[in-house]
Amino acid sequence: MTKFFKVAAATALLVSSVVAADYTIKLTHVVSPNTPKGMGADFFAKRVGELTAGKVEVIVFPNSQLYGDGEEMKALKLGNAHIAMPSFSKFTSIVPEMQLFDLPFLFRDDNHLHAVLDGEVGKIIKDKVTAKGFVALDYWDAGFKHLSSNKKPILVPEDAAGQKFRIMSSHVLEAQFKTIGGNPQVLPFSEVYSALQQGVVDGAENPLSNFYTKKFNEVQTDLTLSAHGYLGYLVIMSESFWKKFPNDLKPMVLQAMKEATEYERKVAAQDDEDTLKKIKEYATQSGKLKVHTLTEDQKKAWQTAMEKIYPQFYSVVGEDLIKKVQAVK
After folding, report:
1. Which of 17, 154, 159, 201 has the fewest C-beta atoms under 10 angstroms from its C-beta?
2. Cα separations (Å) of 321 from 99, 125, 252, 306, 327?
3. Which of 117-126, 133-142, 182-191 is least confident?
4. Distance, CA of 271 to CA of 241 (rounded, Å)
5. Closest CA to 190 of 164, 218, 216
6. Parallel, antiparallel, or unpaired: how do β-strands 134-149 and 203-207 relate?
7. Architecture of domain 3-327
8. C-alpha–C-alpha distance, residues 91 and 197, integer Å
9. What's the Rg (C-alpha) of the chain?
10. Are the C-beta atoms of residues 122 and 233 closer than 8 Å to each other?
11. CA-to-CA distance for 254 and 252, rounded, in angstroms?
12. Phi, psi of 85 (to 5 degrees)
């Protein structure tokens, strides 16, 4: 077969595959395809195609190609996009109970976290989001946050006293640092590196991926693997789109999402593990960073200190929800 005919055949195959799809789902997200979220989105698209035998095609738009971080939810409302996976912080204005996930040391470990997300509490939160005009599908992982500083190791709550910590805009995070004597400073993420470098703030809290990819390891002397807070995404679908979607194909899309969620969480966990190795290698080679792991006693001291803020948010998050999380085995 000549090169021309090979290209023609490939083009014909591509055209036929596009024509063969009876329905198209537009999925928009703001990160690169090689991140856990991006890989999860691509996995979902692949599985939808397979499970529906090509009747449904998911077109993935990464890197804010279709909509930016603050535009996704509006686009779903209008039906201009069909699926997005915003971070939890994007929902707090319409569902204040989402601030539950900002509470420090609420989750004991990955198993406890996922038992909460996939259980009664997770469903309660999803139902509240769905009531606001979306279809809440599933929770994807971004990772646990860890504490860092360029002042001294942060091993017990008292070590944070007097230090300035960069935070996202959140009443919970503000209270979290104030209760241990820290000084929280709200700053855009794009300014964090220079703020740490220039001493505008002393420390921060970040998942390992952010800490390493944004090179905060270069401007911090100590990293404490505290896993004190969680960052996640909620996958949502356009309500108007889903209502019109054929009922016989819905179970296949939902099955693909279930598989994609499991896959994304595994990828996120592996990414965390790989990133920690890179951070420790940097620490060893540079001699400029020390990585600390909390003992069980130290972690308990942190939990006891920070749990004191929970009652401040009973009226916003709901005391019952917090206690339900704590009761999950």
Report:
1. 17
2. 11, 9, 32, 17, 10
3. 182-191
4. 33
5. 216
6. antiparallel
7. 3-Layer(aba) Sandwich (3.40)
8. 31
9. 22
10. no
11. 5
12. -135, 70
